[in-house]
Amino acid sequence: MSDLIERLSPSKRRKNRGLPTFEDDEEEQMLIDTSFNQFNETETTTVEQTQTSYRSKRRKRSNRNSRLEVINEQTIEDEGDAVIQVEQDIEEEPYNDDVQYKLDDEEDEPAPTNLQTKQSSVKIKIPTKTELPLNRCVPKKPDAKEVHIKQTMLLTEISNQAPAIDGLISKLESKKESLQKLQPQLITSKQDVAAEMCVQSCAKLTEQITFLKEEYKKMYRDRDLKAEGLYVPEEPHLLKNKTHIIEQRYLRQPNSLERFFDEDGHLPQYLDPVKITPTKVEEDYLDVNLQTDPRELLKKTETLPHEVTTSYTNRMYRLEIEIKDISFNEHEIMSEEEYHCKQLVEMYNQYQELTRPDSLYHYYKKRTISLTSEMKKIRNTLQSDSDNQNMVHLRLEMKKFRSLLESEEHKQLRLITNIVEKWKLVKEIRSKNQIVTCNVRFQFDKIHHDLAQEQQERDDRIRQEMLERYEEGSTQQESTLYQSILDRINESCRQPGQPEIKPILSKIEITKETNLNQKEIQRIQSIKNHEYYIKLFMNGMFVSKTLSQSLRNTDNNYFVVKFSEVIPCAISKWPDSLWMEIWQKQGLMDTKLATTFIGIPDSINDSKSHFQQLRFSCNHQKPFIPLWDPNHPDNQTGWFSKWFHKPNPSLYKLNNGCICIQLNWIGDVPSQPSTNNRTAVDSHQDLIKNMNFRFDHHSHDLIDPNDPRNTGLLSLLTRLKNQIPPNHHSFHLAQQDEHLFFPNDQFSENHFRLHLLKLRFETKNKVPLQIPFEPSIEMVKNYESNILKCLHDDHHASQYVRKIRDHFKNQDGDSSSNQLPQKSFRLVRNNIKVTQYVSEPPMPQLSNGDSWFTLFFEPKRPLRPVRINREQSMIKNYELIKKCNLVIQIVRGFHVPIRANDENEAYRTYRSHRLKQVEEINQFRRTGKEPTIDHDDVNEDDHDYIKQSTVDADNNQQETTNHSKKERVMSFVMVTFNNRTQKTKINEGPFPQINQTLILPFVPPRSDFKPSTLSQIDQHIYFDLFDELLIDNLKDERDIHLTSQRAEFRWLGSFSLPFETLYTNQGQIMGTFRVKTPDIRLGYQRSDQHTSLSVCVTLDPPLPMPIDDDQDDGFTTSGEPPTVYQQARFFVHRLKDHKYAKKRIVLATGPNADGQATLICRFICAQEPPKDFIKPSQVVRFVSMIPFVSDRMSSDAQDRWLNSQEFLDHGASDWEEHANLLCNYFKYFGLSAYVVVGRAVPEGETFYVMEISKPDSSSTLDSSPSSPVALQQEVITLWNAATGDRYSIDDALCPLHQVGCVYDDTNVWANIQKESQPSKMRFNFESGSDWRPLYRRGDGTPIDQLMNKNKRLESVQPSQLIYRAIPDSYTTKIENNLSAQIRRNVEQWRRRGITIWNGHVGSILHDLLKKLEEVKQNNIEMKQQHDDLLNEVLSSYVVVGFPLNYAYTEPRPIIDEIFNTLIYENNEKDVQFALAVYCHPYVSNFCSLWVYIVSLVQKDQY
Amino acid sequence: MSGTNCFVLIVNGNLSHAEFPGAKNLACSYQFVYGSDWEVVRVTGEGANMETGLTQLSERGAGTRAIYLWNFPLEITFRSTNPYGWPKLCVNVCEGNAKTTIKGYGWCHVPVNPGRHSNTIRLFKPRNSSIIQGILSSITGKTPEFINPTSICEGEGREVTRVQSEGTVRVVFDVMIKDMTKFGFEPVNTKHHQSILHEDEDVPDEIETSKRLN
């Protein structure tokens, strides 16, 4: 049985280790024996252990047989089934001790799995196995396989027995118990023999059990590795029955023992590899170590564990920081006495320190004495060189110690004198204050010494030194040397003969509180109110804070905060930094006073009393003035000095003091990081170096070589130790890049794409081309050459680039300072903004005040667009402008002509209605049923249709649409600029609300946004107003089911806006414009009101304006006497400062044709019009027919004022010439006329003529119907001289909206009224509060110089204007020429169909035009005449058209305008056109040009 | 020649569903992002081959789990010669109310191993850069969005963004790879991989809910 037990473990063990088994027992035995003999001789202690165990086994083996016998006897006697069973099993066992002594030594044989561990550990501690002779027992196995099988079988059985043996033992025990119970029964039943037998067997059994147990323990679980000093990791806990179940399960598997069990027959339990190591140090773990010194431990402070790393070892080092106290050297509430006593006590402590028997002073003293004696000795026996050498050394040492000693003595002396002085000061203070707040008292002992003796000593000392000096080779005279040494010693030491003073600290009674004054009591109480605490930080992290303690005074120590706390820290490595912060408790907010850094001790302190004194200064606090200082505000007398006295800043002091702390490592001290490697980034080289370092450091005690978890580390360390140097290039990945990218060379050669990719890779993405999947060979070649070129270029990369590259390379190599690339890198990164990647609704603009917030609450009114005022053009650099748009907003229209109650329309509706009826009748005829419609209606004569249809149409329209027919007009506006057209939507009614924004691109010539070129652009923005007429195109009754409509655009009027005015108006024109309507619009009601459009035109973005020269000083020369010129300038300048007038246009001078400044009044004088003109209206007509050309456009873009003759000769000019001329004509007719200077839309700066007619004057202009005037009032009319338009002064839609000044031939008046709108102004020039004149007559102003004899200003105008007549041939030529051009163009525009020109109608129209010109000149109504003339045409045709009138300059604008009217857009089949051109000659090449163009559609076709 | 000039990656699968707390309805748009050396194989005939797509708007179902089911098929075939720029699936999820608001972005690689894979894409979305903008966006419903939704597939510029995590999207891929070994790349043993992946797959929600009900 024991065999069995014995066999279990070793055999199994060997089996599991995969070692060969021995077949031949004897041989093996022999081998073992021999090996053992050698063993005994050579073994070290460790091996001896195993040896002993071996011996014990041997013993067991010899006893085996006897033991078995015992068991046998026992079992037979007791007839125990189980025992018998076991016995049988044992006897069945064919093998006995075949393998059992395969020696325990083997256990140390490394297992193949963890070979490295063992090796390495062995090297450190255990003698290597290689030395052991056991290695010789190499088996020679003939048939390993067979044995193997046998072995396995056996082992399976044995393992099955293991629980059986356990069971056997328990059974035996139970048997024993039952026997023991049986015994008393037997005794009672008087069966003595049986009882005795029972007792005997019982004893035997117990013996047996104990033996069995022992054996079982020894053999079956014979090893306690832990006890042997090996590392055994803690096994995870598993319930016993669970283990058993698992074991049983495994045992059923084939080869279970080998596979699942370890050599001990245990199921191996492995540590959980993913088990999380606890990162928080448990409380009890710390507790154990906190009990190191119970005396010191007052409180345990809660600690945050500091920086726990999950390193391979979760070992924690423990640092204890004991904070004893803070003692303030200076504090703001310290009294003077306390302050000095504090210093006194401190000095006394220092003195005590110095005079301690183990102090440095004594040490130095002793040392010097011994040195002297030594020297003396050598001196006496001075023989050899070595002695000489020694002497030199000794002398040096002597010198050193002597100076040290003297400095110590000096220190002492100074200290004592200081103490004495301080004490005197304290006494003084006490007597002054007559109170004692500190219980410090000093007494001084005087110790008298013998003078002679001391002198002798001193002398000896000097002599000694002198001797040394001479030995050194000093050549000084004896006396001088003596004196110099004496002086030095006297300085540092007490004079001989003087008594030695020894301070003794004692106590004195403090003045009782009753005797103190109120202030002092308060102060003392306030001391207690100061509370402080300390925060501890490690590696920048908060660790702990102490309890807050109050300030107190203790015996001999004042202003102390006692903590006496121990803060334990657990830390896994050497802390980087450690500091304390001193905080003062102040109500709710605590304030930080100071920060002190703490040095960390690098070894374990032995002495407990080793406290560090760390000085600190409360630099986080405000400096204070000491209470006792006369400068302290409390000590100031008088409220003034108390509050306003500012003491010298040097008097300010900071709280300061000492912290008394002690740092202790409990247990081990972590290794200090090497300072060199701390900051630099570890390269792998550094890492290895570090490793080596660590290995050296840790090898002694930190790494447990037996811990299997350290296996990797240890093997690495050993390898590192052996293998030096490491491969430098092994970490570079770049060399392998290619292999990562491409399969292999062979493959890529045959594969075009891979080949190309490879090439691309070589160029490092310099050719970022997309490579197709099936590239042609050509492409490959192409690409190759491309790449080669690229590489070539790269080779010749600019020096600069290479320089930079090299620079960075060098920087990289230098690991310590690669800040520059890092910095640049950071810079680059910093430029990234979130907005590049994330779009987010923008932050509301807080800078705009409250507006953003109110946005939420504003009512939303999409129908009321708010115009946003735009900032003036900020773009000064025109080169930045890439494109520009014209933004045209058309707001609304006024007085759009309404369609007349159109006969044509009525006819059309009637006809379609009738056609429908016809169709219905036809249908009924076919079906044979009676139609419900009245037949009379159908048979009615066609000629009656007009009457009928009007009624019908009325009904019809009222039924279908509820529009009032009268006001029917469907207007839209078309805007044309630069051959681009945009249309608004169609709006109904005479007052359409259009509210539409049109955008037209604006491209200046050559896309040049230079201001100079922009101001030269001669283009117009045309606004054309149309009426869209939908005409039912039904012509055949059979088409009744078809809906066919034709849109016809009827031109109602237009106006144009020169781009130049828009540009000069700073890119913005806004206002209501009168639409230039033809005098006759066929088919429309004539209204008295002028049609107008409200329009806003802007440029987006605003274009830069030409840089204005200063206009006032623009004149180079003055045509006037200097005084006049000065006055004019002064006049203008003064008005610039006027409240109202400063922004208005005020002129006094204008440049004449030569650019000389000329008084504007001088341009006005009565001038005779051409002979034919006898009425003012004719004059107006004539002037408006003089072409208009802006000064900017003509010649040198300078404003010029021409006199009338120059104007007529020139043939065209702008506002001021027109106005002046008209005004002059008016003057000729004796009207009171003025020229108004102001601003108007769209013209901008402009000149109007104002005519004031007195109510009684008979020679006024014809009263126009548009201005009904009461007779009693004076009538003021404004004339736009360039267009001939007249405006009543009351007209709100008058384009002139700002009047700057008014002038005539006598004076200039500047408008200084509040209002500048003409309709709101007063025109009484005598009123000084409304108008400011340039000069007052007769007051001797310089302008009088210009007066002629008649007391009128001399005029620049010629007295007589010369007019030239125009020959008839000229007009006919123009007529023919223009009509031919228009015809040609119209034919061109009408791309489809033939354009038929009706000559007959054309001649009628020509006559009409002649009439119209007359009408124009005389300003009379002619509608009726016109209709009469056209009646013939209108009866047979539907006529659509209009007459146009121009001041003739050239055909182009006329043709453009006709193009814009869209008159040609009539796609009726048989449309005809009629054209008439009439040129009415005035004088001097000026003629009024009329064009009448109509489209004619026969009524039958309509 | 034609057989060996590239390897082919065939991806079938579906955008299964999203788990998203705090949304009413969700739709998901996806886009495959791949490197310049890759190409989508366009096969004429049947079968959608879509690089991008938008799912239906899915309302939240009954029950406590916020699951939005799409079951939107993904079918696409790529080819390339080198695996750089391996295709990624970029997903963004939006909620469609009166106006569409982006609820989350996410991406994942197309699995490199053949077989069935079910990936959970965790979503995130950019945060408001200030509190006021946060309040405003909650009023106006204009949340911050990535300008380029596929920029989340790249590392560039991510460091400046601040995001918050949102729900998840579950995508199932069935990946087939052809000819990859010829180019020197060995796909991982499929058997081994599959066994792991099957564990990863979700328990169908119906079962879970029924369990809970019982």
Keywords:
heterodimer; A: 1502 residues; alpha+beta; 36 strands; B: 214 residues; 5-stranded antiparallel β-sheet; 3 helices; 11 strands; 43% strand
Give a written overview of the molecule.
The complex is a heterodimer of chains A (1502) and B (214). Chain A has 39 helices and 36 strands. Chain A has 1502 residues and is α+β, with helices and mostly antiparallel strands. In chain A, strand 15 (970-977) and strand 16 (980-983) form a beta hairpin. The termini of chain A are far apart. The N and C termini of chain B lie far apart (62 Å). At the A-B interface, helix 22 and strand 13 of A face helix 1 and strand 10 of B.
Set out the fold topology:
The complex is a heterodimer of chains A (1502) and B (214).
Chain A: H1 2-16, H2 25-42, H3 45-78, H4 81-92, H5 115-124, H6 144-188, H7 192-220, H8 240-252, H9 256-260, H10 283-290, E1 317-330, H11 336-355, H12 360-380, H13 385-433, E2 440-447, H14 451-472, H15 478-492, E3 500-507, H16 518-529, E4 531-538, E5 541-545, E6 549-550, E7 552-554, E8 557-571, E9 578-585, E10 591-597, E11 612-617, H17 639-644, E12 656-666, H18 684-698, H19 711-722, H20 737-741, H21 745-750, H22 752-762, H23 777-795, H24 799-813, H25 819-830, E13 838-839, H26 851-854, E14 884-894, H27 903-927, H28 935-939, H29 945-960, E15 970-977, E16 980-983, E17 987-988, E18 993-1002, H30 1011-1014, E19 1020-1032, E20 1045-1058, H31 1059-1064, E21 1068-1074, E22 1092-1100, E23 1117-1118, H32 1122-1136, E24 1149-1151, E25 1156-1159, H33 1176-1184, H34 1204-1210, H35 1215-1228, E26 1232-1240, E27 1244-1253, E28 1275-1280, E29 1285-1288, E30 1296-1303, E31 1308-1311, E32 1331-1333, H36 1368-1389, E33 1396-1397, H37 1399-1418, H38 1423-1436, E34 1437-1447, H39 1451-1461, E35 1472-1481, E36 1487-1498
Parallel strand pairs in A: 23-25, 33-35
Antiparallel strand pairs in A: 1-8, 1-12, 2-3, 4-5, 4-6, 4-9, 7-8, 9-10, 11-12, 14-18, 14-22, 15-16, 15-17, 15-19, 19-20, 21-22, 24-25, 26-27, 26-30, 27-28, 28-29, 30-31, 31-32, 34-36, 35-36
Helix pairs in contact in A: 1-6, 1-7, 3-4, 3-7, 5-19, 6-7, 11-13, 12-13, 14-15, 22-23, 27-29, 33-35, 36-39, 37-38
Chain B: E1 7-19, E2 25-33, E3 39-40, E4 52-54, E5 58-59, E6 67-80, E7 88-96, E8 100-109, E9 115-126, H1 131-140, E10 145-146, E11 163-178, H2 190-200, H3 205-213
Antiparallel strand pairs in B: 1-6, 1-11, 2-4, 2-5, 2-7, 3-6, 7-8, 9-11
Keywords (chain B): Cell projection, Cilium biogenesis/degradation, Cytoplasm, Cytoskeleton
GO cellular component, one term (chain B): MKS complex
Family (chain B): Belongs to the B9D family.
